[in-house]
User: Which sequence fits this backbone?
């Protein structure tokens, strides 16, 4: 009994001392260890060379990790990677679109007709399941096949650890881990891959913060939505000569808003649900080295692209089935989709959106890639837009921005609707693939729910505030 009291007193004394040393004790200790190691090295290591050796790594680090140029270069590298990803994906996406939707889809429809398959089974399997899967493959595969290898090449070259070094201070102030910079960057390719990448963070608390906030990185499934809406609506408010650059600035602004929400949410979680000390990690910057291109290409395609794409296909197939069913099953004189749109419309308009958008995001949870085709289909079906088919559960995308603009404006879209859609595209729940991956990584329904619901709360609040300010002005 006496010994237990002594142990309790000892632990209490140690706890008091722990708080007296301050929050930066670990940083000071690590800095002291490295300072002592450096001084010992200077005393025992002698350089017989009479001239200074040219150190390429150190010269490059002075630029890439400097306070003056480091962040500017990071932004430039990110912009180049995203530009190459978006522009480079256009051609293969177009080819896949032509193959899967322009060639195989009509052939399957003709085969179904010749076999006498009932219309409802034909529609369910081809117009629903097949179309959703085809859209996901055509839109998702090319950007991932470009982004992930480029990301891995930067990692092999040795640049990504410099990114973590530059952002470590900002993440530390937000109560998160410096390595979250790498998982956040990975999220721009795919949020599910970004969640898996959080394994590099040892602290369970900080790993949870990185997992929950990864959805604020615009994944490749959301870039097409951002670009399309910005081009049609944002670019239209300026002279034609400035339209392209204005649209680009609008999309990049949304991406940077996502970075802001990453830091803000990390700060919020670290002071509420996930309180704790920021862990210190020693980041040894590796030497720069030529990347192994073919090995990187193979591992990126197999370990990241194919696995993530397969998960997306698995979740997209039932989404396509649901979209077709709600568009073709009638209750009274209206389809389930039209009843739901009417029910959601008042709330949607209140927050600067509409019922079609809200329903599209509900049924398109499995894959962000099918949001725009779903919105177009539901708009045509609900409002009966002439010249664009019946919209009876068949997802489609139009070849020209003008036709897309006509459909959306027929659905009551305004500039406010477009801006709030871009914001809601950033601030909404993760896709099903990411939600499943979050659960696999955390093994917790609690944290999976937090990661899924928190972005929606932010999205509804932001859209509501923007709508009210817009209407007041």
Assistant:
């Amino acid at each position: 009994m006496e010994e237990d009291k002594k142990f309790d007193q000892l632990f209490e004394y140690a706890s008091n001392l722990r708080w007296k040393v301050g929050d930066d004790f670990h940083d000071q200790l690590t800095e002291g260890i490295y300072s002592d190691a450096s001084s010992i090295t200077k005393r025992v290591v002698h350089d017989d060379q009479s001239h200074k050796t040219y150190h390429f790594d150190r010269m490059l680090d002075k630029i890439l990790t400097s306070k003056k140029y480091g962040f500017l270069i990071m932004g430039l590298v990110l912009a180049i990677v995203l530009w190459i990803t978006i522009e480079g994906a256009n051609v293969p996406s177009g080819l896949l679109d032509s193959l899967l939707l322009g060639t195989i889809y009509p052939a399957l429809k003709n085969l179904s007709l010749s076999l006498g398959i009932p219309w409802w089974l034909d529609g369910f399997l081809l117009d629903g399941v097949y179309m959703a899967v085809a859209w996901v493959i055509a839109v998702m595969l090319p950007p991932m096949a470009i982004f992930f290898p480029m990301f891995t090449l930067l990692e092999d070259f040795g640049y990504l650890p410099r990114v973590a070094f530059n952002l470590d201070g900002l993440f530390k102030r937000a109560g998160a881990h410096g390595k979250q910079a790498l998982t956040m960057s990975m999220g721009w390719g795919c949020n599910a891959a970004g969640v898996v990448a959080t394994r590099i963070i040892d602290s369970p608390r900080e790993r949870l913060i990185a997992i929950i906030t990864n959805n604020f990185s615009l994944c490749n499934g959301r870039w097409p939505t951002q670009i399309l809406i910005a081009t049609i609506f944002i670019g239209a408010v300026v002279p034609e000569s400035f339209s392209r650059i204005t649209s680009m600035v609008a999309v990049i602004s949304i991406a940077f808003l996502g970075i802001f929400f990453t830091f803000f949410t990390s700060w919020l979680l670290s002071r509420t649900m996930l309180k704790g000390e920021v862990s210190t990690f020693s980041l040894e910057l590796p030497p720069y080295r030529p990347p192994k291109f073919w090995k990187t290409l193979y591992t990126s395609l197999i370990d990241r692209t194919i696995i993530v794409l397969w998960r997306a296909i698995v979740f997209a197939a039932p989404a396509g089935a649901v979209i077709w069913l709600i568009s073709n099953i009638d209750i009274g004189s209206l389809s389930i989709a039209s009843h739901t749109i009417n029910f959601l419309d008042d709330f949607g308009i209140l927050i600067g959106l509409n019922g079609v958008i809200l329903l599209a995001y509900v049924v398109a949870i499995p894959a962000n890639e099918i949001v725009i085709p779903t919105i177009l289909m539901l708009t045509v079906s609900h409002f009966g837009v002439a010249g664009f088919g019946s919209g009876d559960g068949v997802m489609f995308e139009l070849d020209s921005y003008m036709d897309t603009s006509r459909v959306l404006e027929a659905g009551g879209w305004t500039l406010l609707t477009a801006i709030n859609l871009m914001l809601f595209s950033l601030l909404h729940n993760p896709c099903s693939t990411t939600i499943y991956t979050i659960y696999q990584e955390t093994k917790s329904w609690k944290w999976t729910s937090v990661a899924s619901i928190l972005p929606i709360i932010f999205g509804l609040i932001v859209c509501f505030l923007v709508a009210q300010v817009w209407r007041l002005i």
The mean pLDDT is 81. The longest strand covers residues 330-331.
